[in-house]
Amino acid sequence: MSDVSGTERYLRLTVELTVEVQDLAALQTAALKEINHPDADLDDDERKEQAELVSADDTGASALQWLIEPDHVLGLIEHVDQIEPREAVLGVEPSDGPSDEDEDDDHADHDHAGHDHRH
Fold first, then answer.
1. Whether 62 contacts 94, CB under 8 Å
2. pTM above 0.70?
3. Are 67 and 34 in contact (CB under 8 A)?
4. Of 89, 80, 105, which is closest to residue 18 (Cα–Cα)?
5. Distance between CA 111 and CA 83 in Å, rounded?
6. Which residues contact 95 (CB under 8 A, 6 or more apart)?
7. 36-60 pLDDT per residue, tens
8. Nearest to residue 12, comparing CAs of 102, 87, 110?
């Protein structure tokens, strides 16, 4: 739903999330299931290439990229349905773990009363 008056507003969300991979094999299996799903917009060569990338990546980053959809990120914004995703760029890379800042903060600045965003 676009504003036809020419006053469209765009907001770019930047989310940094560090996750711990507790079961790499399960993560890769879930990604391979997504790659091989009939609705995936891939031809046979692309499926094979992506499956090899996921299987060879011992960080889990390639697998995780297959499991995050832009609509999932919009789920972080509660009680608002007047927004529509227009562009999504997702980057997943290995990390050395939570930064010291994350550990000290322990989400104190990000939790809202009655809403727990930790899953």
1. no
2. no
3. yes
4. 105
5. 22
6. 18
7. 999 988 999 999 999 999 999 999 9
8. 87
